[in-house]
Amino acid sequence: MASLIIKIKQFTSKEKNLIILYLVAWLLIGLKVAFIDSYDNYLCFKFSHTHLLKNLDLYLMYPQEYHTEYNYSPFFSFFMGLFAYLPNWLGILCWNLFNTIPLLYAFHKMPLSAVQKNFLYLFCLIEFITAAENVQTNSTVAALMLLVFINQQKGNTNLSSFFFVFGCFFKIYVLTAGVFFLIYPKRGTFIWKSLLWGLLFFLMPLTVISWNQLIFLHQSWFERLQAQAIRDALSLLGIVNKHISAAIKQEWIMLGGTISVLTVLFKKNLYTSLEVQLRYAACILLFTVAFNPGVESPSYIIAVVGAAIWYVLVPRKNWEKIIMVLVFVFTCLSPTEIFPRSIREDFMKPYHIKAIPIVLLWIIVLVELFRNSPSTEKKLA
Question: Is residue 379 predicted with pLDDT exceeding 70?
Fold first, then answer.
C-alpha cells in the first residue's frame, strides 16, 4: 500500500501526467455519452445552428429534436457550425475536447507554482467530469475567465479583450470577468478593443441571416435570460427563495453580492500584490456561481476552480482545510453515485446542498480580502 501511494504521488507530481489524465477522462466520457448515455444538451447546441440558418426563433422549444432550453447567444449558434455537420458521436468528442483544452491551457498559464497548479488539476477533476458528462460549456467558461485575468495581469489587452468578449458571446457568465480590467493599467485600451471585438462577434451571424433577424434573435435572447431568473437556481438565490423567504427579491440579493465584490476595488493592496489579485479572481469565480439565477450543477466547475485557487495561495489552517473537504464532498461529489440515489434526490437536490459550501467559501474569501494583508508581495513576471 505504501509503495502504491508513493507511485500515485509521483504520478500526480508531474503536470504532463495530469494533463494526460484529463485527456483520458475526456475520451472515456465522450465515448460513454455518445454511445451509452443521452446527449440532449449537445443536440440543443447542434440544432441551434440549423435553426439559425432556417431563420427560426432559437429560443422556442423544439421537442422533436431536444428537450432542454437554448439560453445562448445567436453568435453561439453560428459558432456551432464548426460541429453541427459532424456525426453525433464525433461531434460530441470534438465538442468536449474543445471544452477541455482551454481549461488545461488556463491552468498551465496560471501564475502559480508547479505544486499549486497540480492541486488545481486534481481538485477540479471530478467537477470537470460532471460538466463533460453533461456535454456542457462551463469548463470553457472557467478557462475564459482565467485567461481574461492572466492576460490582464500581463498587460496583453489584445488577448484579454478577445477572451472577455468571446466569452460573453459564448456564455453570458463570463461578463463577471470584466471586473479584472479595473485592477490593471490600460483600462481605456481594454475598453475600445472589447468594443471592436464585440462588434465583430455581434455582426458575424449576418453572414447567414438578415439584420432584422439578428435584432429579433437578440431581443428573444434577452427575454430568455429574463425567464431564467425566475427558476429555482442552484445558488444562493435558490437557497434564500426556498429555505428563507420567497419574498426576498433576487435582484436585491444579486445587488448586495455585486456591491460586496466591487467594494474590494478600494483595497490598495489589490493593485500591488499578486496574492491578493489571485484571491480576488477566486472570489469572482465563486461569485459567478453563488449569485447566478440560472446556474445548474454542471456550472460548478467555475466555482470549484475558484475554491482551488483560494486554497493554494497560503498555508491553510485546519478549519480552512475542513471547508475544502466540505466543498469536495458536498459540491463535487454530491451529484455522483458515491451518494445513494435516494439521498441525492430527496436531500441533496431539494435542499441545494451543492451550493452551500460554495456560498460559505465566498463569504470567507470576501472577509479575507477585507481583513487580511497579503503574506507575500509577489509580482507577476
Answer: no
Is-contact 330 357, C-beta < 8 A? yes
Q: Which among 327, 328, 332 has a CA at the least distance from the CA of 365?
A: 327
Largest CA distance in the chain: 67
pLDDT of 161 higher than 60: yes
Q: Which three cell numbers stand for residue 257?
A: 453580492
pLDDT the model gives residue 377: 45
pLDDT digit string, tens, across residues 8-65: 888 888 999 999 999 999 999 999 999 998 899 999 999 999 999 999 999 999 999 9
Please count the residues of the chain: 381
pLDDT in tens, 182-192: 999 999 999 99
Residue 202 CB coordination number (10 Å): 16
137-148 b/e with 16+ CB inside 10 Å = b?
A: bbbbbbbbbbbb
Contacts by residues 7-10 (CB-CB < 8 Å, ≥ 24 positions apart): none
Mean pLDDT, the chain, rounded, equals 92
Quote the CA–CA distance of 26 and 33 in Å, as a whole number: 10
Q: Is the torsion defined by CA of 314, 280, 152, 184 positive or negative? A: negative
Q: Of 138, 114, 150, 142, give the one whose Cα is nearest residue 14.
A: 114
